[in-house]
């Protein structure tokens, strides 16, 4: 048999020795130092106190902020405009003059109506028979109605603001002829208002609520309105609930109007809003974080507390409703009682295990490498499995 010999240089022997030492060192770390470190690491317990809070139930909706007062105003009499003492962008008060028309014809009509009434009254005074008196009285009534109409027209020659607010439209100039036959019309043929007044001190949001939720709310319920771009809500109340569905999707939905009752500063027409319609609110409710509550398969509910000796003890509790990330406690705890929220056990590689039922991080489970692990099988610094 022919033997083949390979020459071993000092460098080759040195490299082999380094590899052996490295593999032995890895095994010592996994089976010795790491296990000792993990065994000596004590879990860190985090506790929180049971506290009183406010729990509420609500229905969500979205809408657009709009002024509660937006009124169109126009002349109801015929005539030629003689004055328009206001302009777009001006604030007006209730009763302030917006425009006037000439009163020559209106005054003539009023005088004629009064003359007719006087004549009818004279006939009534001269009537003697029952039939004559009845007929004369009817003529007086008709004449009186004519006077009332003429007087109203005379009063209407001065158009005044029925509400206070900001003038957003003024579609009238001196010399314009006004009246039912000469009212300005829009591009679609509809009659346009001569003045539009928008209130700036009262706001509302119109939302739609589904058929399933509409029975939960009622007029007077509180609402929280969060405007687009705002971090804090403004508050309001439900002022109106529509009786007829306005949905055209086949699913019934009803209009709900929310009147803003909170701070009115900085509100603007047309801003999108998210609305919470609160139909139930309870204050001073004892709660703990829901993560602190454990429910067993038999329905028993417990929280974990730490006793005077530092040991954890499971305490039975009775829970109520859950809202967000907190759970109501109706029996078993008092305000200020500390409960365990989570535990954190340091693991390998700076990772760990949070909670009592969550798997930890690290290259291997905290019990160490799997049974039968051979560090000599490590390739490229990684493990198989």
UniProtKB/TrEMBL annotation:
Biased composition (Gly residues): 347-365
Cellular component, GO, one term: efflux pump complex
Pfam families for the chain: RND-MFP_C
Signal peptide: none
Region of interest: Disordered: 344-385
Keyword Lyase: no
Stored Gene3D superfamilies: 2.40.30.170, 2.40.420.20, 2.40.50.100, Helix hairpin bin (1.10.287.470)
An example Gene Ontology molecular-function term: efflux transmembrane transporter activity
InterPro entries the record matches: MdtA-like_C (IPR058627)
Domain Multidrug resistance protein MdtA-like C-terminal permuted SH3: 284-341
Annotated keywords: Membrane, Transmembrane, Transmembrane helix
PANTHER family: MULTIDRUG RESISTANCE PROTEIN MDTA, SLR1207 PROTEIN
Protein name listed in UniProt: HlyD family efflux transporter periplasmic adaptor subunit
Species: Cellulomonas humilata
């Amino acid at each position: 048999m022919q033997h083949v010999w390979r020459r071993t240089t000092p460098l080759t022997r040195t490299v082999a020795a380094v590899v052996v030492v490295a593999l032995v060192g890895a095994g010592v770390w996994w089976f010795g130092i790491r296990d000792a470190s993990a065994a000596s690491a004590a879990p860190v317990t985090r506790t929180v106190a049971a506290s009183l809070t406010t729990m509420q139930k609500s229905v969500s909706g979205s809408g657009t902020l709009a002024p509660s007062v937006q009124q169109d105003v126009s002349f109801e009499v015929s005539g030629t405009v003689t004055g328009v003492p206001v302009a777009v962008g001006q604030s007006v008060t209730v009763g302030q003059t917006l425009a006037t028309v000439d009163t020559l014809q209106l005054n003539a009509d009023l005088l004629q109506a009064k003359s007719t009434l006087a004549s009818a009254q004279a006939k009534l005074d001269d009537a003697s028979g029952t039939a004559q008196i009845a007929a004369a009285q009817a003529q007086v009534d008709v004449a009186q109605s004519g006077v009332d109409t003429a007087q109203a027209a005379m009063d209407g020659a001065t158009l005044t603001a029925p509400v206070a607010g900001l003038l957003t439209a003024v579609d009238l100039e001196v010399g314009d002829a006004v009246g039912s036959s000469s009212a300005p019309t829009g591009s679609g043929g509809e009659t346009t208002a001569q003045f539009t007044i928008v209130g700036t001190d009262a706001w509302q949001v119109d939302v739609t609520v589904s058929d399933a939720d509409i029975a939960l709310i009622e007029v007077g319920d509180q609402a929280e309105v969060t405007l687009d771009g705002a971090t804090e809500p403004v508050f309001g109340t439900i002022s109106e609930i529509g009786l007829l569905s306005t949905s055209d999707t086949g699913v019934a939905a009803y209009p709900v109007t929310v009147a803003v009752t909170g701070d009115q500063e900085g509100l603007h027409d047309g801003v999108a809003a998210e609305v919470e319609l609160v139909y139930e609110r309870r204050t001073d409710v004892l709660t703990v974080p829901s993560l602190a509550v454990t429910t067993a398969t038999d329905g028993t509910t417990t929280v974990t507390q730490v006793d005077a000796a530092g040991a954890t003890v499971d305490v039975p509790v009775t829970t109520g409703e859950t809202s967000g990330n907190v759970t109501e406690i109706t029996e078993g705890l008092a305000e200020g009682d500390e409960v365990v929220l989570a535990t954190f056990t340091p693991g390998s590689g700076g990772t760990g295990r949070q909670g009592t039922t969550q798997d930890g991080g690290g290259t291997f489970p905290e019990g160490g490498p799997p049974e039968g692990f051979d560090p000599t099988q490590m390739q490229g610094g990684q493990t198989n499995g």
